[in-house]
Amino acid sequence: MAKIAVLGYGTVGSGVVEVIETNNAPISVRAGEAVEVKYILDLRDFPGDPYESKVVHDINIILEDPEISVICETMGGNEPAFTFSKKALEAGKSVCTSNKELVANHGPELLEIAKANHANYLFEASVGGGIPIIRTINECLTAEKIDAITGILNGTTNYILTKMDKEGADFGSVLKKAQELGYAERNPEADVEGYDACRKIAILSSLMSGKYVKFENIYTEGITKITARDFAYAKVMKQGIKLLAMSKDTEDGFFAMVAPFMIPDTHPLYTVNDVFNGVYVHGNMLDDSMYYGRGAGKLPTASAVVGDVVDLVRAKGEPLPCIWSSELQELTDIAETHKRFFVRVSVADKAAAEKEFANLEAVDAGFADEFAFVTEVMTEKDFAAKAEKVNVLSRIRMEG
Ligand code: HSE
Known about the structure:
The protein is about 35% helix and about 25% strand. The protein is an alpha/beta fold. Strands 7, 8, 9, 10, 11, 12, 13, 14, 15, 16 and 17 form an 11-stranded mixed β-sheet that branches. β14 (about 360-365) and β15 (about 370-375) form a beta hairpin. α1 packs across α12 (about 300-315), α2 packs parallel to α12 and α7 crosses α8 (about 170-180). Bound molecules: L-homoserine.
């Protein structure tokens, strides 16, 4: 019998308990022994909850119980999640987590502590919710040199952009509706400014390179400046607008960034809508592959956490594959990356734009007060220098 503890009885933590209860038989078969939740750590009490008697308020009860071999950290945030995870690993207990912030901040350190203590640290649920993208990189695409990962990694912003696209609505009103429906947080900054996607691509980029990609070094731009008019142009151009989190390992260096991009309706990520996530991976032998599913939500995220529990119970402290060293992966300045840009200027600035941008392709979506165009392929640096000389109303990078 494997006895486990769940730290944090919020949305994901209660989902973990529910998944283990609902699917107990197949989970136990796959784990090789029965799996039971022995403790739930939370500051609160839960009177009337069927698991009320398992709730404890002191982490030491869990850390000092030799029966506990696996701990699910579903608290979120850096502290006390970091201290609790560290102490658990030092006590030789394996930990799995849905906490992308903690993994992005302390992943290599916690992996090292795990290794030194005959334990494992797994974090499948930290990226892409229920999509098994981390296991895919660590255990499946092991014959590949992965040279590009492009993901829609944030469900909230994908929901907002999908609604803007389908309903012609503006950002503010869709965000308000998303908040009313509980899809967006009351403080939506982490999602709409791209910070959440940034932490997730930092984790995937680290696994792609085997070194430490720090999220602070990733250029990040959110979706707050995208307008209904941008979508009107995108429609004419047979493009969608998506918040992409990407990293590329090219001859020119290792790049990572998060920003809204136009993508053609022929791109597989174009079909990833609403709260769904998609991760498009390029390997040098396999070519392209895509992973799709629910990137957030109680049960999909909990399912990924419990999948880790199964692996941890089965492994019994034997090392599970994960190559992520603390050596820093240097990122090349995105100013050197090449792409095309979609640009809108006032009609009064048309001549200036035509003078500055050679070989531009004009786009007509029926707005008489504006001139819109797509540039030729150029570096970010060149684009910025030219854009400075023209009064740009909006610009969106183009992918594919
Ligand atoms: N806020 C995140 C999202 C939750 O919208 O995708 C899952 O990490």
